[in-house]
Amino acid sequence: xxxxxxxxxxxxxxxxxxxxxxxxxxYGGTVNLFWYVQYPGQHLQLLLKYFSGxxxxxxxxxFEAEFIKSKFxxxxxxxxxxxxxxxxxxxxxxxxxxxxxxxxxxxxxxxxVKA
Amino acid sequence: NAGVMQNPRHLVRRRGQxxxxxCSPMKGHSHVYWYRQLxxxxxxxxxxxxxxNIIDESGMPKERFSAEFPKEGPSILRxxxxxxxxxxxxxxxxxxxxxxxxxxxxxxxxxxxxx
Lengths: 115, 115
Fold this sequence. Notes:
- The complex is a heterodimer.
- Chain A is mainly β.
- In chain A, about 0% of the residues lie in helices and about 55% in strands.
- Chain A is built from no helices and twelve strands.
- In chain A, strands 2, 5, 6, 10, 11 and 12 form a six-stranded mixed beta sheet that branches. Chain A has a four-stranded antiparallel beta sheet with strand order 3-9-8-7, with no helix packed on it. Chain A has a two-stranded antiparallel sheet with strand order 1-4.
- Chain B is mostly beta strands.
- In chain B, strands 2, 4, 5, 6, 9, 10 and 11 form a seven-stranded mixed beta sheet that branches. In chain B, strands 1-3-8-7 form a four-stranded antiparallel beta sheet, with no helix packed on it.
- In chain B, strand 7 and strand 8 form a beta hairpin.
C-alpha cells in the first residue's frame, strides 16, 4: 500500500537554526510531491510542489525541498528558521495516473521555533 | 478571490445525532475532495466528487457516512448516528475542472467533537 513517512513528529529549534524535515514515500510509480503547512488555527497551505524537472524545488517563505528518486525522499529544508515558522508540516504524495486525486499525507511534523 | 469555505468550523454533537458538514469549493472549481484527520495522524482521503457524481468513495466508512455535491449549493458530508470515534477534523479540498486533482486547495476544516 502507498504510504508517506515523516521521520519526526515534533521538532524544536531556536531562531536562525537550520531546518530539515524528512519525508519518504512508498510507491513504485511516478508521483507528484507536496509539502503543506498548517499554522495554528489556520487551514492547510501549499508550501511547494514537485511534478517534474529540477529535483530541487523552491517554495514560499524561503523553503525548498529536494526530490531524490533513488531514495524515495522529498525532504524539506530552510537555512534559517523564524519564530513565525512555528506550524505543522505535512508531506504529501499524489500518484500519477489512475487514482491520482488520492493525495496521501504523512502524519505531520510539528515545528516549534523558540524566539 | 474567496478560497474553499467550510462550515461550521466547530461542531459538537452527542452520540447518536447527525452531523452535516458543508464545503463550498473555490469559484470555478468543480472537483471536491473530503479528508479526515484523526488526532496525531495525517489526513486520510475519504471521497472525491464532481458535480452530481461520486467519483471515488473508497475512503469512506461503509456505514453512516455519505457525501453529495449537488448541481447547486455546497458539498455535504453527512455522518449519521455519530460515535465518539468520529471526533476528528474534516477537511475539504477543491480543484479546477481541467485538473486531475494534482493540486488541491484546502479549506479551514470542520472540527467535530462527539460527546
